[in-house]
Amino acid sequence: MSVSSIAGGGSSSLYAAALAGSRSSGAGASVDKAAGSEEAAQESRRAGASGAASAADVELSESERQQVGALQERDREVRAHEMAHVAAGAGLVTRGASYTYQTGPDGQRYAIGGEVGIDTSPGRTPEESLAKAERVRAAALAPAEPSGQDRQVAVQAARMASEARMEIARQAFARSGTPQAPPAQAEDRSREVASAYSASGAPPPSVYVTA
Q1: Are residues 74 and 130 in the same domain?
Q2: CA gyration radius, the chain
Q3: Is 114 within 8 Å of 84 (Cβ atoms)?
Q4: Contact call for residues 92 and 206 (beta carbons, < 8 A)
Q5: What is the pLDDT of residue 38?
């Protein structure tokens, strides 16, 4: 947005008039008149700035003003969307929010799309992978209206969490010394271990997500 400035010529001419008046009316009057001229100059500057802003508004047609309004709303939505990803993905964000812009009829650039980079690599242990997957899923679904890409990332995170739970269950069986459990029993035991781990309250998640 351009900011109009008023040149100082108007205020100096007003001040000169006040100074001339002070010479004929005495020194005491010169302060009041000079102060009055300064107020008049400030008022003139305000009026000029207001007139410039009104002129800028008049330059846009009704349809252009509507387009600017829509772009402003989209800009707010996109930025709020990406900030939700960043907040939920704290510690996993590999690249902060980046935006795609569109220039409106008013010459301003508005964000119409964006993305946040999030680390989705597995952890060093199944437990770390499970906790990370849950945080990634939370980050992907953090915005009020997750995008299609956000939902895909959430599905990938859910898959990683499932694989981590299975590995945790497998290791638990190995530690218990059970040589080989029947499939049905193994599945039941896997669910028990996964349920117990989920109940422990793993920390929330983060990934590559877009608006």
Answers
A1: yes
A2: 33
A3: no
A4: yes
A5: 53
Residue with tokens 């117990």: 196
Q: What range defines the domain where residue 102 resides?
A: 66-210
Beta-carbon count within 10 A of 143 CB:
21
**Are 206 and 111 members of one domain?**
yes
Nearest alpha carbon to residue 186 among 167, 164, 158:
167
- What are the backbone angles phi and psi of residue 177, rounded to the nearest 5°? 80, 10
Same domain flag for 80 and 32: no
Chain Cα centroid distance, residue 155: 24
Provide DSSP, the chain. Answer: -------THHHHHHHHHHHHHHHHH-HHHHHHHHHHHHHHHHHHHHHHHHHHHHHHHHHS-HHHHHHHHHHHHHHHHHHHHHHHHHHHTTTTEEEEEEEEEEE-TTS-EEEEEEEEEE-----SSHHHHHHHHHHHHHHHT-SSS--HHHHHHHHHHHHHHHHHHHHHHHHHHHHHT-S---HHHHHHHHHHHHHHHHHT--------EE-
Q: Could you tell me if 39 and 98 lie in one domain? A: no
The low-confidence residues of the chain, meaning pLDDT below 70, are 1-58, 178-211
